[in-house]
Amino acid sequence: MKAAVVTSFEQPPRYGEFASPVPASPHDEVVEVLASGLHPRVRSQADGSHYTSTDELPLVPGIDGVGRRENGELVYFVLGDGPLGAMAERTLIDTRRSVTLPADVDPVAIAAAMNPAMSSWIPLRTRVDFRPGQSVLVLGATGSAGRLALQTAKRLGADRIVAAGRGAERVEALRDLGATHVVDLSAEPDAVAAQIAATSAEVDVVLDYLWGSPTEAAIPPLLKARGDRSRALDWIEIGAVAGPEIALPSTVLRQANVRFLGSGQGSASVRAIVESLPALAAEIIAGTYRLDADAVPLRDVEAAWATRASQRVVLVP
What we know:
The protein is α/β, with parallel strands linked by helices and 317 residues long.
């Protein structure tokens, strides 16, 4: 069958032949792939840099997608770690890691939105006790996942939503997606610290897609400005766009009631993730989320890999 095939971690996937999938357990099923999103997580899978990488080659990238079962039913599926991903004409799913979709659903919309929206939906629904009326800071709000995080927070009843990202015009535009306050991280460091302190001192949750130096710089002014430092703050680390490490002084953990959590593959059980998916899919189908998606034929995977547009690329047959 045709697929996007990675033969070297130094090169992008190429359109070529890959062995057709064969079920190996009662829960396995071959599905026709209708759409699969090119997420940052997929890029790290294809270049071997993700922490789950086994260095096994060749491989077909793609961690999720929309497929058609033999009975014609449409499903959204999440794949396990293995050499056969979703960017192929057909793939092998574990039916326990899939949810049924309406027959008239737009596969591209689901494939584009589920993975990035999941990054905020799951931690706010399962990792912390988030309640309507609470407040959220999104670090990295101008990225596609960050933009969806703003919309997730709004949908779940957040009262104050602070969007922090680079570029004054870009962050101001995030007010249309639910941001009540914005912080321009490209401003001078002292100005950024002042903005963080003024807008985010009393938030209940931080959804952090950046890590690295922006997080390192944001922690002290935010914690020092809290009116009641004993009030709980959950800092959820989701992505590391700005760097994989930070310097965290011990005094940070002693001067405020802050809890650092990671949210990613392994931090929540597969069962908890799958149980969260039907509600999220329903929100996407209902039009809760705004996300631009660009459908690209699977045969053009090399060209798609080279793009770094703001749109979410989705590979289709």
